[in-house]
Predict the structure.
Amino acid sequence: MQEVVIGVDGGTTAVKAVAFDLHGKILATHHEAVPVQYGDNGEAEQDMNQIWEAVATCLREVASEVRDSKIVGIGLTGQGDGAWLIDEAGEPVRPAANWLDGRAAERVKQWDEDGRAAKVLEVTGTTTFGGLFPVLIEELAATQPDVVARATTHLNCKDWIRFKLTGERLTDYTEASRSFLDVRTTDGFSAELAKDLGLEEYARLLPEIHRADGKAVPLSEEAARETGIPAGTPVGVGMIDVAVTGMGLGALENGDSWLILGTTAFVGTLLPSVSERRSDLSMVLATGNGKQVLEFMAPMTGTPNLDWIRKVLGLEENSWTELEKLARMSKPGASGVVYLPYASPGGERAPFLDTNASASWAGMSLTSSTEDILRSVYEGVAFSLVECINTLQIHSDLVVSGGGFRSNLICEILADATGQTVVRQDAPEAGARGAAVLALVSAGRFDTVEEASEALRTSLETFEPDPAKYEAYKKSHEVFVKTRQALQPVWPEMRELRRNNGERSEA
C-alpha cells in the first residue's frame, strides 16, 4: 500500500491540505477560502471555527483522493501572530485578531516611547507592531476585559488547528518567539519580560512549548469523523509558516536563506545564535535547534498589492499571464512611475517600522500608461524585498517560494534588481511540504529533518540577472527609497484622513 503524508497550511486568506508520497510528489490538494473581516479602525479578524471547518473540509477532500493509501502523518503550519483565544471548554472567546490587525497602532507608538518595545526586542528579538500578541492582548484587555477574562489559552493558527485535531494545547519554539520566549537562551517564556510589560496576568494564556519535530500524537475520534482520516493517525507539532517553508526548500543549515511572497512577504536567513543578527529592525525566531535562530524581515507588502491593482484597473477578467504580458509592455523603471506598496491596514514593519505607512504612486504624468502603472506595482513589491535582502546581507542565490513567486515577472525583476540568481522550486506548496517533512520525523518515518527534507525535495528553476537591467533598476530603486522618505512625514495625516472618512461613512 502506498504511503502518503499530508501537510496542512493555515494561510491568511485560504487554508489548504496537500498529500505527498514519500518521494515528494503531490498526489492531491484542496484549498478553501477563509475571509478576513476588516474594520474602520484597523481591525483584521477571522472566525476561528470557520477556519477549522475549512481545514476539516480540505482534509476530507484530500483523504478521499488518496483513500487507497496509508496516511502516515499530518503536518501543520499556519499564519503567525495575532491573538487566538479559547476558553476552558476549547471554544473561541472572540474572533481571532490576526497578524494584519492594526487597531493597536497608538499602543505600539506608546511602547516605543516608554521603552517596552526595546524590552521586547532585547528578549524575543522581535520588533513591536500592531499584530504582535503582547500588544494585542493589552489592547483587547483594555477594550474587551470581560471577553479576555474568559480566555484560558492563546493558540496561534496552526496550534488551534492542532487542538481541533488532537485536543492538545501546545505550541512550538517559532510561535513562542512571538510572545515571551527568551531567544537568547531558548529556555522558555520569560516571566521577567511579562512583568516588565505589565502583562504578568496574561502569561497564563501561553501553552507548553514543544520542538517542531517532536513526537506526534494521535488524531482524535471526533476529528476523525470530521476529516475522514483514521483515528490514531500521527499529528505533528509543526512551525509557523515562514519558518516551515525552509524545511520544504531544504534550507536547514546556518547561512541558508529563503524568501516568500504571499499575503505578506518574508526574507530570512538562519544564524547560529541571536548574537549574530544583522539588524535591530529584523525579527528573530528560535528554531528549537539549540540556540539557532531564523533572522528575518517580514514586510507587509505582499500579493494583495497585485490583487488590488488588478481590481482598480478593471482587469479582474484578465488572467495573471495576460497581466504580466501587459506589464512587460512598459520598460524597467516603469517610465518613472514609482509605487510605494504599503497598502496593509497595519502599516509596515520591515525594513522599517511605521504603523502609518501608506501606499501611493508618484512620478506620473499625462503620458503615464496603464502598462506603466501596472509594472510599477510589480516593481514596488520587488523593491521592498530588495531592501530586506540588502539589510540582512544575503549575497547567495535567492531561494524563493509562495504564490507571488509563481510570477515569472516578479522573479525576473528580483534577479535584475539585486544582480543575484533567483532559484524557484518547480513544485508549489513549499509550506505544506515543510509541514509534511516535520510530520514524517514526528511520526518516526525518518530519523532527522535533513533525511525527510531530502526525500520530499523537488526540482528547481533559475532566473539569472541581466546586467543592463541591473543598472536601470539601481537608479529606480534609489528613487523609490527617496520617494518614501519624502512622503513618510505626512503618513500620519493621511491615516487620520482615512480614519475620519470611515467615521463619516458610518454616520
Notes: The CA atoms of residues 5 and 73 lie 5 Å apart.
